[in-house]
Write a structure and sequence with these properties.
The complex is a heterodimer. Chain A is of the alpha+beta class. Chain A contains 19 helices and 22 strands. In chain B, strands 2-1-3-4-5 form a 5-stranded parallel sheet, sandwiched between helices. In chain B, helix 1 crosses helix 5 (110-122) and helix 2 packs parallel to helix 3. The chains are: A alpha+beta, B alpha/beta.
Chain lengths: 644, 126
């Protein structure tokens, strides 16, 4: 081998090694499509071995359309002598994880041989796809942004630093009544009524220069000017952004006509409530559970005697102690508010600032905080002092009526008992009189002694009846105020003598003595002498009746202080201590149970009492049972009166 | 029980006297008492067939005596006529509640009473 051949051989060897290390798959193919050589036998894109591939035809390797395409490019390359290139997707069946895209370059290397250089260009394809998608996304987001801008209810207007409108969204169109083309390029001031109109530019200038916002950056309520010239309230918020070297302003505009109208309506309503609150004829208050007024209306202040609600809220620091007459009542109110959250017609006595007491009827409820604690009480207070007074009066009247009723019932019972007793007292002697008369009439053969006895009884019992009737008449006259009192100056001694004389027959009957002691210089009394004689006679006949035969009765008259005192003392049966209080009661006839003796009427001492008391005097008895009694009466003596 | 015996009770001696007089004339055996306690004692001792009993008396009144008689099995069959000067209906009701057999209001005619109780005794009508 010559050196040239050796050099060539060496060069060929170097080339072959370099080619074999190429990152591309290098093969040689002829016009018929037969693979002649594989220059990179270890290339990963080979899916058959290099030995197998050599001699195979492209039509054996690829599906027909692709095989044809390969053959076409091979032919074009050989015919034109120009390198060809094409891209193709991975054919089937291929590598387990085949690249998605190949680039094949064809270069004619002889008359009937073409080198094919195959490269995996998947990564390039992916980059393209990413670019394409990014582009689409950008288009979408712009559309989306536009959609958002167009459908948002807020008007969005952008402008440059000189106030020239750059964009005007659909809502802005409907808010202002302009089409975007009418506004874009114009100054923003056209959308503003005076005085903002003239000042607007300077606001923006000022902000741009100093960063001090007049309208920028803070939402505020301003007026907008519609195309039709109408002015409406709007909320405006302005932001600014650097765009390149320029500054852009974006205004977000909201038509708040409805809100403002709503606010005005609410203000009107509030004013109405305020009026009600202020001019209510009931007191309205808010109070804290701890005992302060938080607020109240003028009426409430007036009820409690304060000049104004403010004064009341300030002055009252302890409702229970300062306002409630009984702090316990406020404690009960608080308890009810805690337990039930409300009170209805809670009546309480409260003290006005001037100390006067009034009755309030409270209807209130608890207002709770978020945590369920009671924040305050809200309530209405009515002054029910007049009603309460009336209720008390009615209640008082009812009580009086009840008492009167009870008295009446008792009086009725007493009257029944009295009538029953009178009936008994009248019928008993009448029974004797009528019975004995009927016996005398029926039997003609009654012996003389019995006849006389019966006639005697008839006479006695008739007299008893007469006395009883007289006593009853006297009593009813005194009670009815119809008794004739023929008052004159009466000598007590005269009264005593007269009485002793008229009861002489009784004294003689039992051989009883009377001893009279009268102090000297006794004053006369002003009275009806017959009435005093009646009293004295009654006491004397009782003494005779209840004293034993031959006993002595003492009569004494004296002055004690400004009174004239007369007493009648006997040595008779006396009265048991238990019976003493009954002595002057009607029909009581204490101890008068002796048989065979003329009975009293049971009214004598009652009448004595009525007479003595008529003259402002007193009558009483002292007695020792079975030893004697002393009945006394005292009459006031007239002094300092000159009797002609 | 003594069929022909009658007890007259009244705290008013004149009334006891007149009833005793007419009943004795009618050949009845007459016993007398002047208050409730005495009356009850006599009833238990002498077992009269009839008791003419005044209502308003000291110590035991007529109603109480009547109730005592009527609630005592030993005295069963005793005829009690209340004598009263209280003419009101309520008093009559009280008497009947006490178990009285008859209620005689004062003033009465003693002659008629004697005739009636004589006839009742004769016909065993007690």
């Amino acid at each position: 081998m010559d050196s040239n051949e050796q050099q060539l051989a060496a060069s060929n060897r170097r080339t072959r090694h370099l080619v074999a290390a190429s990152p591309d798959l290098l093969m040689v193919i002829d016009r018929s499509g037969t693979f002649l050589e594989v220059l990179t036998p270890d290339h990963p894109l080979l899916w058959v071995s290099a030995e197998e591939l050599v001699g195979m035809n492209a039509s054996d390797l690829f599906p027909p359309p692709m095989a044809e395409q390969v053959m076409d490019f091979v032919a074009r390359c050989l015919d034109t002598g120009e390198p060809q290139s094409f891209e193709y997707g991975a054919p089937e069946p291929f590598l387990a994880d085949p690249p998605e895209l190949f680039e094949a370059r064809l270069v004619a290397t002889g008359e009937d041989e073409v080198a094919i250089i195959v490269r995996d260009v998947t990564a390039r394809a992916t980059t393209f796809e990413a670019l394409r998608q990014a582009e689409a996304t950008a288009r979408d987001s712009e559309a989306r942004l536009r959609a958002i801008l167009d459908t948002t209810v807020d008007g969005i207007i952008s402008m440059d630093s000189s106030g020239v409108v750059m964009s005007f969204n659909r809502s802005a169109e409907s808010i202002f009544g302009y089409g975007d083309s009418e506004v874009i390029g114009q100054n923003i001031a056209m959308l503003m009524p005076e005085p903002d109109h003239s000042q607007h530019d300077s606001y923006i200038d000022n902000y741009a220069r100093t960063g001090e916002a007049k309208i920028i950056g803070i939402g505020r309520e301003v007026s907008g000017l519609r195309k039709d010239g109408s002015v409406f309230p709007m909320e405006l918020e302005v932001g600014s952004a650097e765009v390149g070297r320029d500054r852009m302003f974006t205004g977000i505009v909201r038509d708040i006509t409805e809100r403002v109208e709503g606010q005005q309506a609410r203000k009107v309503a509030e004013r109405k409530y305020q009026d009600v609150f202020e001019s209510a004829i009931v007191g309205i208050y808010q109070a804290s559970p701890s005992g302060r007024y938080l607020s109240c209306n003028p009426m409430m202040a007036q009820i409690l005697g304060y000049d104004s609600p403010e004064e009341m809220v300030e002055s009252v620091t302890d409702i229970a102690g300062q306002v409630y007459v009984d702090p316990q009542v406020r404690a009960r109110y608080v308890q009810l508010m805690e337990q039930f959250g409300q009170v209805e017609a809670f009546d309480a006595q409260v003290r006005r600032r001037d100390g006067g007491v009034v009755w309030l009827s409270l209807t209130a409820h608890s207002v709770y905080e978020g945590d369920g604690e009671i924040a305050r009480y809200e309530g209405v207070a009515r002054d029910i002092t007049a009603r309460k007074a009336m209720e008390l009066e009615v209640e008082d009247g009812r009580k009086r009526l009840e008492e009167a009723n009870l008295e009446l019932r008792e009086a009725n019972l007493a009257k029944d008992a009295f009538l029953s007793t009178i009936s008994h007292e009248l019928r008993t002697p009448l029974t004797s009189v009528k019975g004995f008369a009927e016996i005398l009439q029926a039997y003609g053969d009654i012996e003389e002694a019995s006849r006389n006895e019966f006639i005697g009884i008839i006479v006695n019992e008739s007299n008893r009846l007469i006395r009883l009737i007289n006593d009853l008449l006297d009593l009813s006259k005194i009670e009815a105020g119809k008794m004739d009192w023929e008052d004159e100056l009466v000598s007590v001694r005269g009264v005593i003598d007269n009485s002793v004389a008229s009861t002489r027959s009784l004294a003689l009957e039992k051989q009883q003595k009377v001893e009279i002691t009268t102090a000297s210089g006794l004053a006369d009394v002003m009275a009806d002498p017959d009435k005093l004689i009646q009293v004295m006679t009654n006491l004397l006949s009782n003494a005779f009746k209840f004293s034993p035969d031959g006993s002595t009765i003492w009569i004494e008259a004296k002055s004690v202080g400004s009174e004239l005192l007369v007493s009648v003392e006997d040595q008779g049966t006396g009265i048991s201590p238990g019976d003493i209080p009954l002595v002057f009661e009607r029909f009581s006839q204490v101890g008068d149970t002796l048989t065979g003796k003329p009975k009293g009427t049971g009214l004598g001492l009652s009448i004595c009492k009525e007479i003595v008391e008529h003259y402002g005097g007193r009558i009483w008895v002292e007695s020792e049972y079975e030893a004697g009694s002393r009945f006394s009466f005292a009459l006031p003596v007239l002094t300092g009166i000159l009797i002609p | 029980m003594n069929q022909d015996t009658i007890l007259v009770v009244d705290d008013e001696p004149n009334i006891v006297r007149q009833l005793s007089f007419v009943l004795e004339r009618a050949q009845l055996r007459v016993l007398v008492a002047f208050d409730g306690e005495e009356a009850l004692r006599v009833v238990r001792e002498a077992r009269p067939k009839v008791v003419l009993l005044d209502v308003m008396m000291p110590r035991m009144n007529g109603y109480e005596v009547c109730e005592a008689i009527k609630s005592d099995p030993d005295l069963a069959g005793t005829y009690v006529a209340l004598l009263t000067a209280k003419g009101q209906d309520s008093d009559r009701v009280k008497g009947l509640e006490a178990g009285a057999d008859e209620y005689i209001v004062k003033p009465f005619n003693p002659v008629e009473i004697a005739q009636r109780f004589k006839e009742l005794a004769d016909h065993d009508g007690f």
